[in-house]
Protein: Phenylacetate-CoA oxygenase subunit PaaI
Amino acid sequence: MADKTDYLLRQGDNALILSQQLSKLCGKGPALEEDMALTNVALDLLGQTRMWLTYAGELEGRGRGEDQLAYLRDAHELRCCLIVEQPNGNYADTMVRQFYFDTWHYFLMLGLTKSLDARIAEIAEKSIKEVTYHLRRSGDLIVRMGDGTPESHARTQAAVNALWMYSGEMFLYDAVDKAMVEQGVAPAAEPLRAAFLEHVSGIFAEATLAMPDPAVWMQRGGKTGRHSEHLGYILAEMQFLQRAYPGAEW
Structure:
C-alpha cells in the first residue's frame, strides 16, 4: 500500500499547493469576473485535495486525516510537482502555470476514471467536470493574452519559456508511478504526454505563441520531496495557524 499512499499524496499535494497559490490572488484579479473565477478554481482544487488526502490517510493507517497531512508535514514530506510551487509572478506567469497544470490534470483525471481502484476512479469522476472547466478557462485566457496586445504577448511568451522546464516532471515516471500503472491504478505516461503536447501546441498556435522544444531537459524532484525554496515560504504561511495553535478548530 506504500506506493499507492505515495501516489495519493502526490495528487493531493499538487492540488493543495496550487490552491494555496491561487488563494493569494483573491481580490487581486485583473477584472471582477476573473477574480471570482480564479478563487473558484482554488476552491475546486481544495475540495479535490480533501478527497485525495483523506484516502491517503486511510491507507497509511497512522491515524492522520486531511488536516494533519496538509498542515503538519514539512516541505521534504510533500510530494507536489515543482511547477505548482513556482511564484505567482505577473498574471501571465500565473495563467501559463495554470494552463500547463490544467492540461496535464485533465488528461490524468480522464485516465483515472478508468482506474481499477474504485475509490480513485470515484474521485476522478467527481473532479473531471471541474478540471474540464479549468482547462477551458486557462486555455481561453492564454489565447486572449498571447494574441492580444504586444505587451501581453511578450509577457505570455516569456512565461511560456520560463515555466516550460517544469512541465515535464508530471510525465517523468518513477518507481511509484510505474507500480500504479502496472496495477491498473494509473494511466501510462506516454499517452498522457502525447495528449498534453497536442493540446498545448494547438492552443499556442491559436495564441500566436512559439512552442518550446519538447525535448529540452526538465526539472524534477518534487515528487520525491526535493523542492525549490518557494515551497518553504508557502508552507510557512499556510501552516502557521495549526503549528502555532495545535489542534485549533473553528
